[in-house]
Amino acid sequence: MAKKRGKTASSKSSKKRLQSVEVIIRKKILGEAPEEHHFVVADGKKIKNIIELADALETMSEEIFRHHANEFKNDFSAWVKDVFYDHSLAEDISRAKNRLETQIAILRRLVKELM
Question: Where are the alpha helices (DSSP H) in 31-74?
Fold first, then answer.
């Protein structure tokens, strides 16, 4: 009888851990980066999370965008990967050819997350 209880407790514990992991991941992608990891745009604006990045891309000048994303680097992709650990979104951002495609990649990911 004791063994049976052990298995049940273990099963419950395992389910609890899975739920915790899902909540942590969701918080990470939708949450705010710690202050020391906010993205500082070349024009001085600070971006705290991925939603703010999508908003900033809406009005960002092409010059500022190209400063951060060009043939040599993609600071947006690196930030998403290094701070939010979303390698899939980081890859989509790095493949984007311009500001609009970058914004669309981010918005698609956010919509998926909210579903």
Answer: 50-59, 62-68
Distance between the two ends of the chain, CA-based, in angstroms?
A: 42
CB 32 within 8 A of CB 48: yes
Predicted model pTM:
0.75
| Residues 75 and 19 both lie in one domain | no
Residues 96, 55 share a domain: yes
20: containing domain = 1-30
- The verdict on 17 and 37 lying in the same domain is no
Q: Give residue-wise pLDDT tens across range 35-57.
A: 999 999 999 999 999 999 999 99
Angle between helical axes of 50-59 and 2-30 (0-180°, round to 10): 20
